[in-house]
Structure formats: structure tokens, C-alpha cells
Amino acid sequence: MRVVVDGEPRELRTVWLEDGAVKLIDQRRLPFELRILEARDLEEVAQAIEDMAVRGAPAIGATAAYGLALAHLQGKDLKEAADRLRKTRPTGHDLFHAIEYILQAAEKGEDPRAAAERYADEDVARCRAIGVAGAKLIREGTRILTHCNAGALATVDIGTVMAPLRAAKARGRRFFVYVSETRPRLQGARLTAWELAQEGIEHAIIVDGASGHFLARGEVDLVLVGADRIAANGDTANKIGTYAKAVLAKENRVPFYVVASTSTIDFSLPSGDKIPIEERSPQEVLHFEGTLAAPKESPARNPAFDVTPAKYIKGIITERGILPPGQLARLRAPPRRARAPARPRKARRKRD
Ligand code: MRU
Questions:
Q1: In DSSP terms, which residues pair with 223 in a beta bridge?
Q2: Average pLDDT, integer, range 263-275
Q3: What predicted TM-score, i.e. pTM, was given to this entire model?
Q4: What CATH number matches the domain at 2-126, 3.30.559.30, 1.10.3720.10, 1.10.10.10, 1.20.120.420?
Q5: What is the CATH number of domain 137-331?
Q6: Maximal C-alpha separation, the chain
Q7: Under 8 Å between Cβ of 272 and 236
Q8: 228 is catalytic
Q9: Structure confidence at residue 7 as a pLDDT band (50, 70, 90)
Q10: pLDDT band (50, 70, 90) for residue 352
């Protein structure tokens, strides 16, 4: 993504490995400050994921991949490093997918660093393909509602929900995005709005509770959300508040799409009720900008994700096309390669 650092435009990814450190855009400081955090060992990488300096399922996956590469460079045991990373955040599937990817590559004798670089490049390629697949849903004047941040910051680059938006914008289409602020950590207001502003896409931030209002008034044509883990039947865990939007979209006959890379699909879970839901600190709910915003004797609950049943989802936009949730099983098989054109037959030599 193109960003301005110290007044200079730079092309940055969300996370990369350089000079013996995993470097990442510190998302806790955006949109006010663009600061690069340097995680110098495996523990600092794990803490960056836990404290949400880096967040968004695919970005967490790539950070874990680089974290394992760093651990290997520093002579650490890969399996122990993987165990530590698996404990950071439980809901997003990409974390576990990326860890397996690197462990398997290492078992086959590949350098974990090379495998991590390939993992990150593949994530970018998937997002680019998602953009091509999803852009056809965005026409001139389409009004889109989104939640949380499924942009470049939530992936290695480009984003999932942001990919079709970027592709549609590149094709010269004008459209409008309602960004729900996403309490309690404001990924919508702070991060998605920042990405849209950088891209010059028209948008407005709304409070989470306003989604029903705009859906009921016919002011939303399409809902696009990301995903943290998709079960085999299409049930989808995403940022808390997604489920309410899906139900409201169906009630108001507005198509609701999940936009995700196949790395987010967990075929080992038949349905969404087994997806582990992270419960974060109540302090995130009770405090606003560091100030207590509730009676000091009141407790709070803070589930970070909810599960939207597949019946509310019209389609899942992946790098392999748009599928109804009931047809996800088709993605279990590896993509079919384009057939090589038939070679012209050699003229038979005449026997003499
Ligand atoms: O708690 P977060 O900020 O990591 O949650 C992120 C989301 O819920 C995103 O919507 C999801 O990871 C999709 S990112 C392409």
C-alpha cells in the first residue's frame, strides 16, 4: 500500500522480515501516526499479535509465518515457537493455516524464511484475485456497508473487502461506503476509513447501531464483510456485530457477502458452532481513549467475534470466484490448472 512516512510516500506491506526483525505497521496508532514496530524475537512477535499491533486474520497469519522464520534464524526450536504463536489469538484460521504451512515446508527441508516470503506473496496474490472476482458486484453508484477492517492492513497488502473496492475504483466507478465504527477498538473508524480516504473513495463513518437504520431506508445496496474463520458449511466468524448486520440485511433484502481468502476456510469444522470465540478484556469496553466511561462497579463482556449462519450469506467472494456458502466444498480440491495447448503432432515418417 502507498503511505506517507515522515512526509515521504512509501510502498509498504503490513508486515515483513528485515534486518533480523519482523517489522509491522503498528495499527494501534493509526490514523494519527504511522509507526513501524520492530519485533526482535518470537516473544515480541507473539505480543504484537496479542496486543493487536497487527490484527486481521490474514495479516496475523503472515506475521506468524515471519515469526517462525525469525525464530529459526535465531536458532529456536520451530515446534516450540509454533506452540507459543498458536496461543496468541484463537478465532482467526489463518494463524493456524500459516503455522502449518511453515512447519510442513521446514519438514520438507525448505528454509522457513523462503517459505514465509512465499506465504506473504501468495496472500497478496489471493487478495488481487479477490478484487477481480468481487469488482463486478460494484456498479456505478452502489452503496456498500462494511464492518471492521478487511483492508490492506488486515492482510499483507490490498485487503479482502478492500480488494473489490480498489478494483472498482481503478475501473473508474464511483460508489459510496458506509463504515461502521466497530466498537470497542474502532477498526472501522480508525483503519477502514483511513484506507478509504487514502484511496479517495467516498465514505461516511456510522455508529455500529446505525446499520439497521440505513438498511431499512433503502440506503444500502450491498453488504461486504471480511471473515476470521469460515466453517465447511459457510457459517462465518467475523468481528462482533457482523451477525446483526447479516440478519438486518436479509430482513431488508440487501445482499450480504463475505469476502475472504481460502486460507480463512477451516474445512475441519463442519459448522460454525465449534469456532472458538475470543473474549477480550472488559477494559476495552469500559474505557474510551483511556478514560473510564461506565460506572466503576459495572462489569462488561467483550466477545471479539460472532458467527453468522450461512443462511444469511448470499455468497463468499474468494480468489477462486464467488460461491454460495453451500458450495464451499468445491474449494477443497486444489485449483485446476489451465490445460496446456495440445502439441501439434509430428508428421509420421514414411517407412521406406
Ligand atoms: O480483532 P481483529 O481486528 O483482528 O478482527 C478482524 C476482523 O474481524 C476482520 O474483519 C477479519 O479478520 C477479516 S480481515 C481480511
A1: 145, 256
A2: 97
A3: 0.94
A4: 1.20.120.420
A5: 3.40.50.10470
A6: 102
A7: yes
A8: yes
A9: confident
A10: very low
